[in-house]
Every structure is written in structure tokens, then in C-alpha cells.
Fold:
Amino acid sequence: MNTTQKSFTFAESLDRLAQVAVRVGLGIEPGQTPPQELLISAPVEALPLIRRVAEHAYKAGVTLVSPFFYDDECILARYKYARDESFDTASSWMADAIYTAFKGNAARLSISGGNPALLAGQDPEKIARASKISSQVNKPAMEMITRHEINWGIVACATPEWAALAFPADPIDQAMEKLWDAIFAASRVHADDPVAAWKQHSQDLKLRTKMLNARSYAALRYTGPGTNLVIGLADDHKWLGGGGKAGNGINCMPNIPTEEVFTTPHKDRVNGTVRSTKPLSHQGTLIQDIQVRFENGRIVEATASEGEEAFLRLLDTDEGARRIGEVALVPHSSPISASGLLFYNTLFDENAASHIALGQAYSSCIRNGDEMDEKALEAKGANSSLIHVDWMIGSGEIDVDGVTKDGAVEPLMRKGEWVIAV
Amino acid sequence: MNTTQKSFTFAESLDRLAQVAVRVGLGIEPGQTPPQELLISAPVEALPLIRRVAEHAYKAGVTLVSPFFYDDECILARYKYARDESFDTASSWMADAIYTAFKGNAARLSISGGNPALLAGQDPEKIARASKISSQVNKPAMEMITRHEINWGIVACATPEWAALAFPADPIDQAMEKLWDAIFAASRVHADDPVAAWKQHSQDLKLRTKMLNARSYAALRYTGPGTNLVIGLADDHKWLGGGGKAGNGINCMPNIPTEEVFTTPHKDRVNGTVRSTKPLSHQGTLIQDIQVRFENGRIVEATASEGEEAFLRLLDTDEGARRIGEVALVPHSSPISASGLLFYNTLFDENAASHIALGQAYSSCIRNGDEMDEKALEAKGANSSLIHVDWMIGSGEIDVDGVTKDGAVEPLMRKGEWVIAV
Structure:
């Protein structure tokens, strides 16, 4: 990475992050044709970043930037004070609006940064009900995201609650500074030319996917403490990583940062046990030390040392919530993992360790999957669910093998590091 | 007004303002049936107020509070950097969503407080184009507001830019404190029981409308410096003031504060000249010393000492923009007027002085008007337009007479004060 020795002011770093979000994450180039609208979802604390994003987006030719700010305290007020039946309510009018905007080729930027433990202490049953109805009404819009029909992206923004959780030993000002530094570094904003640095990084990830696609493994085998798992891969699966071309023709990089290569497992061909290697922060609840057993793709036993009730409810969302829809490989030496930090935020923690995701599969990880209907995707082994929840199973103690169609076993990772050349 | 001598902390005052917004403005009573959703439009600076509103709303039984925050800097970024054709773009998907929410009986709260001079210095032609397309896509939702089909309300929130404009001689901290004090006072939040105080005030305004409705004047005549104007009133016009029952059956008080009684003029029966008595802040442009001449309801001459171009563009929005849709009487001694302040904010300034509004009439100010279609309303003399813009024509130097159907002239106001008993 072609970094300089320059130091940057916070304002300069923030402006560069906004530029990376627009130019790399969303792939919006100056003078883009046809011009797009841009929808942004962000915590209110992200306002200074959003102002920089709005300027870069308008300068690149976006016609209208619509930021939707959410506030953790307003969300919490609902759990504290709203009448019980309200938890079966979701604003379908808003979900429809977002779907309509996406259908009209709007781009979508999410800012990650809400308090990961916001809903700790709230009734898990209410959280599950609210989450389920929200997933239902938002399904058409979310499918456009999982099918990558439009250019979309996520970048992070430090907030005090998140910083306090990630850096519990530090006073809040220092914790915020450290979290911002981690975000700026992982987002490669201090490279001489951040846009070029991201192109190079994307190229590196693509070489890895090319190697894996050439091998076309039938399954992956994971071994390590508490883990002895075979994950069959979907028929005609395809490894992806780095940037990709969305259905609307725009090259974008959905996750900033990203260190993973990922594909679609076969929903019926997962067997054995696996232990989580980092806590999962799901809708404000921390879930620690997950241990599950799969039989023919289905989770038949599940425990957690903390947040078990929330995890079991998550598995009960629908039939697909007990099966996995994504498998991703990340070397233990990735920059985010090397920081040694636990971020309690999926965007960071999933790029520090190999992981799997419960629920919905990405159709783009099946050859020609974006043109298939749900039934055809299912026949390939792609899982379907209202949820898509990543959790970490990789560490410096995990070995991963590739199992070929004729049963040969090839070492892919040892102690969390790649051992096969690209 | 049954005020106490107690002093209140800022947090207490803010909480009381939130309570007034929910209980009085929107008329949402605890245990309300059927429960409603609540949409809020607010500047980002209103976050502390919105958090109090969310809590009171959920406690009163609202199922879902959806705050939509706007940010002046993001709006300004559009005018500075967006490509030219973007000013003919509006997010119709969002306008449709709000209309759908209103049709589903959602309540609507607006927080007034953006920088009144935000767009000063921006291209008036772009402002006019953006405003026109926005009015067009939002027309169905706005008609539900003007027809009062749902409970809706506006309250104010101090912001630094507004405070600096209203109190230019003070340092910003003191200006903010003074503006908040003015908002709290005008919103009657320090009464022993603010909800009861508003009921009493509403009753006082209703007695005034009862008197005016009993007289059923054919016209009002205004005389004063630069003003010699006869405003014919619509056939079957009805005076309104204070609270009212919305089409969904909920008693609400749309404007907090409110000091006006108002009705619908006849769109073809306005003749003579009139001069504005306070500056009009329209979409970020200040328009000063408006002077217009009406002929048979239509403005045929118009000048302004400042912002004339913006005013002329406003008149050119559509045919109805040159005619008036509302006439309102406010005594010069009203509490807001007595403060002697100019707020550069219609919610305050329109309750400090008698005023007229260019554009759309309120159908609720015509007997049975809420059941009439546009054609029937027009036959009564109600004006129709994409805009509804109030400006002030009252002061301590203006006399108002009522002209009866048989031509008798009765004094209503002298030097801006009521001279006819309720």
C-alpha cells in the first residue's frame, strides 16, 4: 500500500473517508451517466461525515442526496415506552419508498456506528418481533442489495458508545480518537491516492478468488478448538471478493473496509460443530461463545455463554435462519485482525476473521445466480431467509482445508494463514 | 393565563414543550384508540427536543415515531455543487411514502427552526425550480394537511442561525437563550397546566370566530400607510381559530403558538394596494417592503425593496400564486407582537400581525368545504395553487372594517386592536 508519511488533520481524514465512500464504496465517478439519487442511512452522530459525503456526491453528479438519520435514544424510547402491540408494527410505507428509490436506480450508503449494545437489557422477545416485521416489510429492498442490483456501500463512523465498548480502558475522548484512527487506517484513507490504493487491494482479493474458483472445491473443512466442521459449497458456487459490478453496471466496493473472499455454502451439506471466535453484536445484544452443531445443514444444537436467548430467537426467525448462506475466508494477519482489537461491529470484526452467516445467501455467489429465481437458486443449494447475520469462526488456531470433488484434501489455511499460493 | 412564578430549568421547559407538541398540538391523549404512527420533520439541531417528543409520544400510545431530520448544510451543498438538471428533481418516492403514511392515519409534527436566510445568495431560479417540483410531488400529502384530514402540528426549536438573525446584537449563547425563552413563552409551556392553558386560549379564539361568523361580512377593508385594500370574503366562508377537529376525529392545535383567527377570501374580489409590515422569509431568502396592487383578486403590480426577484418568481409559480387563499386577523397587542421582536419565522411573525397568504385556500374555512371537490370550492371563491405563503400586513397603524352584505361598514380594529366585542 502506497502510503505517505504525511500526517493528516481529523478534518482531512474525514473528508478522505467521505471521498472513499462515494468514489470507491459507491463507485460514483465524476460526470456519471445516467445521474443517480443517493440514499444514506446514518446515526445522527455521523452528521459531520454526511456533510462531507453530500459535497463529494453532488460534485460527482448525484442529483439528490437524501440522508436518513437514526437516533439510538429515540430507538430506545420505543423499547422503554411503546405499547406492546407496536412491536408487530413496521413502517411499510417507508420500506416501499426505499424499494421504489432503488428501482429508480438510486445508490445506497449505510453508515455503521450505532451503539452495538443499545438494546442490551431490553426484552429479547420484543426485539425479535420488531426485527422480524421489519425484515418482512424491507425484504424487496434488501433483496435488491443481496442481489447487488444497485451500487451500495457501508463505511463506519465512530460514536461515543461504540468507542467506549471497543476501548473500555480509555477515557472517552481517547477512545473516540483510537476508534477513528482504526476506521481511517482500515479504510485506507491515508494512502497517497486512496482510490488507487483500493483498486490495488481489490485486485489482490480478486487473485485469491480466481485461485479458489479454479479449484472449485466441493467442501471446506475447519478444525480447531471446539470446531470440527465440514461446509459443503453450493453447486456452481463462485468466490467473490473486493469490488464488483452491480446490476446497474456500476463497479462498487460494498464494504469499506473489506478483507474477505466469500461464497455460498450448500444449505443442506453442513455437518459438525463450530465455536465462535469473537462476540456477535446483534441488534444491540452481545452474544458470546456461540457453540452449534449442524446436521445436514441445519443447526440442531446451539448454546452461548451470554445472549443465548437472543441467539435462539434469531435461529427461530424462519426455517432458513438455522442454515448458513455465506462462508468467508480472512487471513488472521489481515490489518484489522493484526490490530488485536475487538470492535463489536460486524463491518470490522468480519474483516478480522473467517466467518459464516446465518440466513440469506447472495445470489451473486452462484454462477448466473442473479438471473435465477428463488427456486433455481435453492436447487443449487443457496439458502433463503429474512435474516443475514455474520459471525466469526476464524482465529490463529484454525486450519482450513479444501476438499475436491473426488475427495482429495488440500491445505488452504494453517493457524489462520493462507498456505496455498494465488 | 394561569401561570406560576416558578422558574424552570431548560430541560424542564424542553420537556414541557414536547408535551405540548404531543398532547395539544397533535391532540394525542394517553390510551388513544386507534393508535397512530407519528412522522416528524425536524432540523438536526432539534434532536434533544425530538427525544423528549418521542418519549411523550410513545407514552401516549403512538406505535412508531419516525423522525426525519434535515440538515441546512446538506441542503446548501446541493445549491453549491449539484448539476443544473438536479433542480428539476424531487424524491417522489418519499412524497408518496408520506402520503401513504397519512392515508394510514399517521400524525405529523413539523419542527420549525431552520436558518431563515439559508438560501440567501443562491440562484433564485434554481430555488424556484426546486421548490416547484417539490410542491408538485408533495401535493397529495399537502392537500391532506390543508384539508386537515389528519392531526398535525408545528412547534418551534431554536437554532443558532435563526437566533443570530432574530437577536443580531447579542452573542450567540445569549441569542439562543432569548430565542428559547420567546419560544417557551409563546408556547405557554410555563403555565401550571399547559394543556389546560391551551384549552382556555383556544376557547378565547373560538369566541372571536363565533362573533365574526355571526356577522358574515361580505368584505374586509384595510387602511393604513401604503395600504388601501378591500378583501372580499368567499361565499359561505367560515372563520376558524384555536384548535379544531381533524378529519380523523382528533382535536388538535396545528400551530403552537397561535394567536390568529382566519378565513378564506374570495379569489376574484380583492382590490387595492397593500404594503407588508414585516419581512417575509421565504425558502431562505428575505423579502422586504413588499408593495402590491390587486385588481379583481389578481396581483397586477408588485415590488419589494429586497428579494424582489424571489418574490416575483414566487408569484409566477402558477396562476393561483398571484391570488390570496387566506386572510387572518391578529391584534397588535398579541403576546408575540408585544415582544417587539422580529423572528424571521412565519410561525412567530404571523402570530404577531394580521396577514394574508398567497396561494392555496383552506377548504375547512368554507362551510362543508371538506366534502367539496376543487371545482365546488372554486365556485365559492376559494383559491387553488401549489403554494401557500403568509405575509404580514398588520401593525399598530392599521384599521380594519367589516363590510356587510348590504354595504354597511362596521369598525373591527383600530390601530391594530379589536374594537368590537366578542
Summary: The mean pLDDT of chain B is 94. Chain B touches chain A through 41 residues (CB under 8 Å).
